[in-house]
Amino acid sequence: MGETKRLILTGDPEHDNPLIEQAAAVIRAGGLVAFPTETVYGLGADALNPDAVRRIFEAKERPTWDPLIVHVSDADELHRLVRAMPPAVERLVQTLMPGPLTLVLPKADCVPDLVTAGRPTVAVRIPTHLVALALIRASATPIAAPSANRFGRPSPTTADHVMADLAGRIEMVLDAGATPVGVESTVLDLTSEPPVILRPGGVPRETIESLIGSVRLLEEAFPEGQPLPSPGTSPRHYAPRVPVLLCPPEPTALFQAAQDALNLYEQIGVMAPDGWQLPPSSRLVRFEWGEWGNWQQLARQLFAGLRALEAHGVEAILCPLPPASKLALALRDRLLRAAQT
Ligand code: TXA
Ligand code: MG
C-alpha cells in the first residue's frame, strides 16, 4: 500500500465533484476512502464487496467480531438492505433520517456476513453530510464505514486525525474540514422489545422516545470478561494513549482534581470548560473545551481535545464528566469508556 492521497474539498460543487468521482472510483475498485459524515470521519468501502470490507478490518486493526454500519443515501436503498421494517420504524426513518441515527434491523441476503460479523442483523444509517451523500451516490453502492481511527482510539473529527491513525494504510481521504456533530451516531437496536440504545450518540434518547415510546439503554460500562450484549460496547474504547481521569462537573471539583493530578504526574492536560479556573502551573496544559452545558459545542470538541492533549505529550488527561441526559449522555459514555483501564 502506497501513500494515502488527501483530496481537499472546498464546498464548491464545480471543484469538488471531480474529486468525489475519483473517490467513488476507488470505492468501486474495492479500495478504502475515508470521508466526512456529520458525526465523525468514516472509513468507507463497498459494503457489497467482501474483499473490500476485509481491508477495513485490516487497516483499523479491528477484530472481525465487531460489525460495521452500512451507509446509504436514501430510504429506498435502506429498505433494500433490511428484511423487515415495522411501521413504528418507518416513523423513525421519516423523521430522523438522514441524521446521526443508526438502526439495527434484520438483514437482507445481499449484505455480506463479514459486514455484520455473522449476525442476522445489519446496522444502517443515512448521513446528512453532503460529501458523504455525494460519495455514496457516485459510488452507486452502499458504503460500509466504521469510524476512521485505529481500533480503540478516539474517533476522528478531522482529516488530520484520520491521517494520524491510518496514513499509508488507506488509498484516500476526502478532507472537508471538521465534522459538525463530533460524536458518533446513536445506535438503536430495533430487533428487541422494547428497542435498545446500544450506543448513545448524536440523536438523544429523548427524541427517539418522543416518536416510538420508551427504549432501553445499555448500562454504561461492562466489566471485562463478561459477554457483551453488543459487539462494539467494549469497556475501553475511544481512548487516547494516556490515562483519562474524570471528576464531578463543578469548577471546585475540577480545580481540586487538577491539583491532585499535578502531584501524581509530571504534566497533565485538562479539558477545561470556559471560565473554569485551574491551579496556575507550567505543568498543566489547558484545552479550551467550550461552554459547560452547551453540549453541541462540547461534543464537537471532545475527540479533538483528547487528541490535541495527547499530541502535546501530557501524561494524563483530566475531564469533568457530563450528566446522563440529552446529547450529554453521548459525551458521558465516550469519556467513561476512555477512562476505563
Ligand atoms: O457516526 C457513526 O456511526 C460513524 C460514522 C462514520 O457513520 N460510524 C461509527 O462506526 O461510529 P463504528 O464502527 O465505529 O461503530 C459502529 C457501532 C459499533 O459499536 C458496532 O459494534 C455497532 O455499531 N454495530 C454495527 N452493526 C451492528 C449490529 N448488526 N448489531 C449490533 N451492533 C452493531
Ligand atoms: Mg468507532
Give an overview of the whole structure:
With about 350 residues, the protein is α/β, with parallel strands linked by helices. The protein is about 35% helix and about 20% strand. The protein has helices at about 15-30, 50-60, 75-80, 85-95, 115, 130-140, 160-165, 205-210, 250-265, 295-310, 330-340, and strands at about 5-10, 35, 40-45, 70, 100-105, 120-125, 145, 170-175, 185-190, 195-200, 215, 245, 270-275, 285-290, 315-320. Strands 1-8-2-3-7-4-6-5-9-10-11 form an 11-stranded mixed sheet, with helices on both faces. The longest helix has 18 residues, at about 295-310.
Shape: globular
Residue share in helices? 25-40%
Structural class: alpha/beta
Roughly how many Å is the radius of gyration?
A: 20 Å
Major beta sheet, strand line-up: 1-8-2-3-7-4-6-5-9-10-11
Question: What small molecules does this complex bind?
Answer: threonylcarbamoyladenylate, magnesium ion
The number of helical elements comes to: 11
Unreliably modeled segments: 221-228
What's the helix-strand series?
Answer: EHEEHEHHEHEHEHEEEHEEHEEHEH
Give the N-terminus to C-terminus distance in angstroms: 34 Å
Strand fraction: 15-25%
- Total beta-strand segments: 15
- The overall pLDDT average reads 95
Largest β-sheet summary: 11 strands, mixed
List the helices and strands and how they pair.
Elements: E1 5-8, H1 13-28, E2 33-36, E3 41-46, H2 50-60, E4 69-71, H3 75-81, H4 87-96, E5 101-106, H5 113-116, E6 121-125, H6 130-139, E7 143-144, H7 159-166, E8 172-175, E9 186-189, E10 196-199, H8 205-212, E11 216-217, E12 244-247, H9 251-264, E13 268-273, E14 284-290, H10 295-312, E15 316-320, H11 328-339
Parallel strand pairs: 1-8, 2-8, 4-6, 5-9, 10-11, 12-15, 13-14, 13-15
Antiparallel strand pairs: 2-3, 3-7, 4-7, 5-6, 9-10
Helix pairs in contact: 1-6
